[in-house]
Each structure stands twice: as C-alpha cells, then as structure tokens.
Write a structure and sequence with these properties.
Largest sheet: 7 strands, antiparallel
Helix content: 25-40%
Shape: globular
Distance between the termini: 31 Å
Radius of gyration: 16 Å
Strand content: 15-25%
Structural class: alpha+beta
CATH superfamily: NADH Oxidase
Length: 195
Amino acid sequence: MEPIILKTPRTKGALSVEEALNRRKSVRSFRQEPLDKEEVGQILWAAYGKNLYGKKTAPSAGATYPLEIYLAAGLVNGIPAVVYRYREEDHALELHIPGDIRRALAGAAFNQQFIAEAPACVIVAAEFIRTTSRYGERGKRYVFMDAGHVGENVHLQAEALGLGTVMVGAFDDDAVSSVLKVKKPVLYLIPIGRI
C-alpha cells in the first residue's frame, strides 16, 4: 500500500484557543458517522506535525521527540480501515498493520467499548531511549510530559473541529502492544469521533 499523503493542515481556525479550552470535555459516546480524511489529517498534525519553524507542534525535552503516533482508522472517508504510522516529516500515513483493530484495542483497554465505536483512534507510543540517552533516568519523566503535550494538542484540535475525544490511559500494556504489534510502550489511546 502506497503512503497516504494528507492535505496541508490549516493553521487558522474559527475557534480561539480560549474557546477550545472552555469547551474541552471528555467524550465517551460517539455517533456512528465517518470522520473526513482532512479532519484526521488536522488531528495528526496537531498531535505531532511540523509547524512553520520546522519544529513539531508539541514541545519535547531537548527536542528529542521520543513519540511515535499511530492511527487506527475504522470509519474515515478516504482512508481504509487499517493501522497507520503517522509520518510527520511529510504529513503522510504509512501502513503499519492491516485490519481494523478498534475492537481488539477496546478489549485490551478493559473492554471500554467506546474505543471500538469511535471512527478512529490515535495511539501514542514511546521510544524512551531517544530521551534517556540524553537525560538519563530523568528522561523517562520527560517522555511522559511529551505525551501530555500531544494529548492536549489533540484534545484542543478535536474541540476546534467540533469533534469529541478522551484520553485513555487505562489499558493492559502488553495486550495493547500486542494488538498494535509494537515492542515500544504505548502511553495513550485517544478515540475520536462525532458527538
């Protein structure tokens, strides 16, 4: 499967940061309506894309950028229902594994069924060595901070798009890594959908 090149993200929106903050809430119930490819691209850019300075949209300790962003697509117009790795360097999706894994992810997250019902799920995984090789043991703390920055960016972008999301940290680590077929630890599951 050829990589999917995403549309250039918008850098101006109708909703202010203050309004997005004021509206921010956790959503665990999604309408069974597809997301658009452009919405998913905008969410991924907000998570870990490149900004006008050539840096990522989320800060990182020492610019070590230890995170990997995946998309479990299920019901997205223009994007097949498989798992992709987000390539921030060219704002594209590359096939990671075939198949719709949302139901398996929900099972690995202690049967939180809203994960399976969301049209897509952003998954944040970490390569700790990128940060700990520079900062030692304290670098582990920085990786978790980096994941928090990504989560907040995704949440605020979802609000600005009129979408719902929630940050999910309650899951079986080994089971989620097995479903995703990665050896690196997964830190966040972020289901996204219409409310």
